[in-house]
Amino acid sequence: MFSLRTAAHSEIGLVRSNNQDSAYTSPSLIVVADGMGGAAAGDLASSVAIRELQAADAQNKPERLTGEHMLEVLGGALTRANDSLADLVAWDHTLEGMGTTVCGAMFSGTQLGVAHIGDSRGYVLREGKLIQITHDHSWVQSLVDEGKLAPEEMATHPHRSLLMKVLNGQPTHSPDFLLHDVQRGDRLLFCSDGLSGMVTDQQLSQILRSSSDLKTVVRNLTKAAHAGGGADNITLIVSDVVDYDPALEAVEPKVWGAATTMSIPSVDAPVVDLGDSDPSPRSMRAKVPSAPAPIVHGPTPPEGLIDPDRFETIRYAPHIPSRRRRWIPTALVLLTVFAVVFGAIVGTRTYIDSRWFISADTSTTPNLASVNQGLPDEVLGQRLYTPVETSQVVIDDLPPYYAAKVRNAEMTYTSIDEARSAMENLAAMAERCRAERAAATGQPTPSATPGEEESPAPDNPTASESATMNPSPSSPTRPDLEACA
Q1: Are residues 265 and 398 in the same domain?
Q2: What angle (nearest 5°) sits at the alpha carbon of residue 21, between those of residues 16 and 22?
């Protein structure tokens, strides 16, 4: 007795405008459905198939079905799905042409009960060899079967999308059923042609063998489908056959793709008297019009073939941006980058312009104190400040503490008024120091600059000037910052 460890994925692909694939995974059932056609109904068709198969899976738990019983349950679910599609078409004739492939398997613990219709595929990787266990219901496959086409030509044949049968409400389209024994170590792959049509069997085999981690395998298969063009929806399920594990048996079932969001209409099919003794809606099924033969070039395919692309609307048709519009994403990115850079530049400039500092004007002899706007720094050799005005304060006249602060540009302010006020205080300190030094040498007090009269100290200094000019007396632990010597 074995269990299945499963990983799955369903997506829109690189070209389609919506996802019409659906899938379902549980410990006892894995299945893929690729919807097609109708006014907008490929997603509806695949969702109907998944709904019926999901219901059948739930109804037959917790007991595991075996052998032919699995095939009977699958057959019943697909018959109900086909009936529902017929009812939907009779209820809304714009849905004519919708259909879906179905490819999946019920799992007994030792055996797969496989159900298949259309060109979605089932594979088993056993001991490094990839085996396709389903047979495509496509016209090119029939040509290969008849020896009229080489297998390697299928992928490039112009009519490779034409199908012999799908689940579409027609009673003549019956699925294939088979039983397949499994063994420990088998790796299963069920997928829509969005994968198998983009990736060769050789690539599938290589990727399936590339990692023991199923999520990595699923991710790499999806990347390979993208590399092959990603021209269709991509849906795949990969499962490993492992020893029986109660935890794996308890994994909750999950729906994927279109079936996760599609709301299926509740339809009471109309009763129409067709002259039969039983005028029930079921008697209408044989009267549901079949899709017209597709228009093709070259050898004419037989009537009754199904062209998945014939009824596709713009919702599902390839949607490739025109060259005229391809520049829009790039332009948006460039505009965003420009806006960010421009905002950063403006913000930085605004901040720099709001700062002021006092420094030494080294172009004068002796050096004088000057007021500058900006920051006392350089970036790539460019100064971040602009000299505004140079004072008559000789830096060497200042107390050593303040002389050092001016030379190191450490006196910074948030407005030019603050900077000018500080400069006035420096001028007063410089004048006082000149007087003290002159008194100490017995010489007259020199002027601030040669040929200029001495400026008297202010009679009524402001509070800030008093605080700066007359700090509290020095103490053993606090030096007198305004000491002139």
Answers
A1: no
A2: 150
Residue 237 is assigned to a structural domain of this protein: yes
Tell me, yes or no, whether 314 lies in a domain: no
Same domain, 265 and 378: no
pLDDT digits (tens, 9 = 90+) for 370-392: 999 999 988 888 889 999 999 99
Q: Around 433, how many Cα atoms within 13 Å sit in the side-chain half-sphere?
A: 24
One domain for residues 269 and 362: no
* pTM metric for this prediction: 0.61
CB 395 within 8 A of CB 406: yes
Separation of alpha carbons 355 and 361, rounded Å: 18
Do residues 280 and 360 share a domain?
Answer: no
Kindly state the tokens that stand for 327.
Answer: 């520049």
Q: Convert the pLDDT of each residue in 238-285 to its tens digit.
A: 999 999 999 999 999 999 999 999 999 887 645 343 333 343 334 333
Token digits for 354? 């709001």
Alpha-carbon span 392 to 428, nearest angstrom:
11
